[in-house]
Amino acid sequence: MNASASPAAVLISGGRVLDLDGDVHHPPVRDLLVVGERIAACRPGIAADLAAGRGVPELPPRAALERVSAKDKLVIPGFVNAHYHSHDVLLKGCFETIPLELWVLSALPPAFPKRSSAEIRARTLLGAVECLRSGITTVQDLATVYPYDEAHVDAILQAYEDVGIRCVFALQVADVPGVKSIPFWDEVVPASMQKGLSGAVEPLGRGAEVVELVKGAIARREPVHPRVTWALGPTSPERCSEALLGGFGDLSRGRGLPIYTHIYESKAMTLMARHGHRRDEGSLIRYLERCGILSPKLSLAHSVWMLPEEIRMLADAGANVVLNPVGNLKTKSGVAPIRPYLEAGVPLALGCDNCSCSDAQNMFQSMKLFTALAAVTHPEPGPPTARDALAAATLAGARTAGLESDLGALKPGLKADLAILDLTDPSFVPLNSVARQLVFTEAGRSVEHVMVDGRFVLRDRRITSIDEAALREEVAELMVALRRDLDVVLQRNERMLPYLLEAHRRVWQSDIGLNRYIGAGNG
Ligand SMILES: [Zn+2]
Description:
Blueprint: E1 8-17, E2 29-35, E3 38-43, H1 46-51, E4 64-69, E5 73-77, E6 79-85, H2 100-107, H3 117-133, E7 136-143, H4 150-163, E8 166-173, H5 185-188, H6 207-220, E9 228-230, E10 233-234, H7 242-255, E11 259-263, H8 267-276, H9 284-290, E12 298-302, H10 308-317, E13 320-323, H11 325-330, H12 338-344, E14 348-350, E15 353-354, H13 363-372, H14 386-393, H15 395-400, E16 418-422, H16 434-441, E17 447-452, E18 455-459, E19 462-463, H17 468-508
Parallel strand pairs: 1-4, 1-5, 6-7, 6-15, 7-8, 8-9, 8-10, 11-12, 12-13, 13-14
Antiparallel strand pairs: 1-2, 2-3, 5-16, 16-17, 17-18, 18-19
Helix pairs in contact: 2-17, 3-4, 3-17, 6-7, 13-14, 13-16, 14-16
Zinc ion binds next to β6.
């Protein structure tokens, strides 16, 4: 073996290494050896053995070894942002807290003219950079490419490859028009304005055509970059026909692909199920079961308005729930039944959702709210604990990615996706409990280095993979057109507002058999 063929190796020495199977409050000091893209060893004494000239069996003889001191640092598994959308990265800070349906009309691609490939690349890079800077090493991007353009899919995937984050990529699709997806819209909004009503994506065809489109998009790009894997993204069950969901079920089983969807995010979405799915007793969970996709491969984002019997069905099926507590509050969607999910044994992962409805790609915020929001319905002490939050942000997210044998912990054999945090930051002084201070105190300020696939993509707080300053300049130029288009969208929505609010009021006056707001008996 010549030197150029030797694997790169990194020794991260003398840091506290977080292991959710060990002492999460005072993790022990370990040396962590990375060889190539994987963790080769994690134990005390590797640095001392090397200094004393003793052999380290996990280190190939001619490996180029980079040494990083982690003294006074904490090494954690990289977070898995299990629900994310790259399509509205550039709209962070554009909206106050507004109801979900109004936000969708203001922020999502079908409401806007077609974007340029340059804008799509820039927003994908920027979103990934924000994730990396807060210790996220994997994003699960449920991306709307509408109108559909193969060049735009290429732009997104190339951006992920270039920036160096790990991505599970799903095209967000539906075959029911947006105007049909929200209760009372088609009754209340005047016909002359209804062309302005759209959803998270609009139909790219009918059931089987959409399945073929996605199948073709995947096949044309094989193999994708090793850090990019595919998932399937039916936007929400009430907007997808049996043919579409059943076809995705076949594709998922055939290729082992995860399926991501939104469910019961808002009361309106839940009312739609009650109205439109009488055959399934008004339950989208029964609908998913009938379509053959209620399985451990399925991840249900939000799941705020879930009935107790549906929670039991999810637990029995091993399906995943991905909670997005920040986005749910900002869009006035309510609070998910967090403790009932935990008590039923439903696997819970965490996401940061859209940049314009949560407006931060920050798992520290998600973890803190995840632990805090059980207070809304459960005043007595109990789970989720800080450890539960860390497990949701790492291990459970890896499961939703279909990568649980590779990600989610710092153990030999797993991929080297990690973040190194500064324990001298005031968030960790004094160090009473690493787990609790990660979840309740830290907000992302201490993240110094981030490694994905054995490569530092954030080093000494600098992104190593792309030129961030150039990206900022490019974004500033792109925003001229985007702001102009946003103004047009907002003026149109302003004209529709009285009708949209009337539809919203009618939803709130409807009885759907449960309430996810503060009040007695909410479960
Ligand atoms: Zn979403």
